[in-house]
Structure formats: structure tokens, C-alpha cells
Amino acid sequence: MNRWAIYIDIEGFSRIFTTSSTRAISLLGTLMKYIHSIGCNIYPESSERLFAHQFGDGFLIVSDFPENNLKRPIAISIALMQILLLHNGVARVGLSHGDYGDYKGCYRYFLGDAIESIEDCTMKIGSGIMTIVPTMGDALIRAYKLHDSPKKGPLFFIDTELRNFIPAEGVVLSEENDKFVELNWIVSTPSLLGKIFSGCGITSPSHDDLKKRLTNYSSSLGKGYKEWKENASKLII
């Protein structure tokens, strides 16, 4: 396994934004807040530090080094998904692995001296501004591609290549195929989950509360979400 990579975003963000931009930004801010909290309060040291990068309504979270198992990324993903549900939102996750790096220096060939004006990932274009994303790699590509599975719903996908790195303790799987392993984030209780909630200052939610919240969220969706609702209902076991 290379460096693990989580791609997490808010389900239905565009729909939410067109209805209430305030709610959409609040959910995105909540996701941002707790990724920051996990990185600062739980895994701040260099040996375990995290790298998080925003892409629209989602974030890529990457480990510093390869690890022997998926205990940390699974617990982090479940915690973030449950926290969003506590705030009346739902997320979707793809967990894979790969390389990731900073390629800003490579742009000098294309931008010449203009690259010197880059500050905090922005550069001037006349009186306007261009923003750039200096980091990329197949960790992003693989995690996002997995997350972008045609299967609808607030789901948690793990790259099937990482199947042997999934810890057995407290993890409930709901589907496996040649592309992904699907994890039930409502009922799974990996060993590090309590530590993450505690570090974020949150009381661990009960399964009954999470199930009720997901049921209510699903019920609030209108017509045209049949498959989404069916897949969400399978998490409530």
C-alpha cells in the first residue's frame, strides 16, 4: 500500500446550494472544521500528520507515509460522515492509495517569470486573479474515481486492492466486488473512532440516533431518489 487517500465530499451539494447557499456553506464549513480538528488535535505530529486539500465541495486527505493497515483512514472517514449526519448532512467517501506531490515548480516551463507572482496559490492575470492547485497525484485520481462510482447514495467505498489492509475489528462490510469494498459507516465501530470523537469534543453518537437521522434525511428527499434511498436504507440494519 502506498500513502492512503480519502476523498470525501458532501452529497447533493449543488442541490442544497441552489435551495439554500447558507446551509450548503455551513455543511462545507463543518466538514472543513472537523478535518482541521482531527489534524490539529489527534494527529498533529510529523509521524502521523495529515495533508488535506479542498477541491470544490470535497477534500482529499492524504497520509504522510504508507501505513500497515487502514485503521486510521477508516476511523477518520466514519467520524466525518457521522459528524456531518449530526449536522443534517451526508457525505460520500472513496478510500484508495497512491503517490501525491507538489508540482508547482514544474509550471515554470509554462509560466516563466509569472510563476514568481504566485503567493498562497494565487497569481495575477492582469487585474484579475488565477488560483492554482499545486498538488496532485494518482492518490487523488484513484480516490476520486472510486468515490465517483455510479452506485448512488451516501456510501463509503474502499479500493478492492486494499481489501487485505481492512481491519476486522469493529468494521462491517456490506458489499464486495472487483472494484470496491463497501463499508457500512452507520454501524461500524473501529477501535480509533472513540478517540477521534473525543479529540473533536463530540460525544459518540448511538447507532439508533444515526439510523433515525439517516432515515429522516432520506425521507426529506423528493421523487427521483429511489436508488439513493434504497442504498441508504441498506445501511440501517
Describe the structure in your own words.
The chain is an alpha+beta fold and 237 residues long. The chain is built from eight helices and eleven strands. The protein has a seven-stranded mixed beta sheet with strand order 2-3-1-4-9-11-10, with helices on both faces. The chain has a two-stranded antiparallel ribbon with strand order 5-8. Helix 2 (21-42) runs antiparallel to helix 3 (71-86). The protein is globular and about 60 Å long.
Residue stretches low in confidence (pLDDT < 50, at least 5 long) are none
Q: What level of helicity do the residues show?
A: 25-40%
Question: How large is the count of helical segments?
Answer: 8
Strand order of the largest sheet: 2-3-1-4-9-11-10
Radius of gyration: 19 Å
Number of strands: 11
Distance between the termini: 31 Å
Mean pLDDT value: 92
What amount of the residues lies in strands?
15-25%
Structural class by SSE content? alpha+beta
Shape descriptor: globular
Order of helices and strands: EHHEEHEEHEEEHEEEHHH
Instruction: Sketch the major β-sheet.
Output: 7 strands, mixed
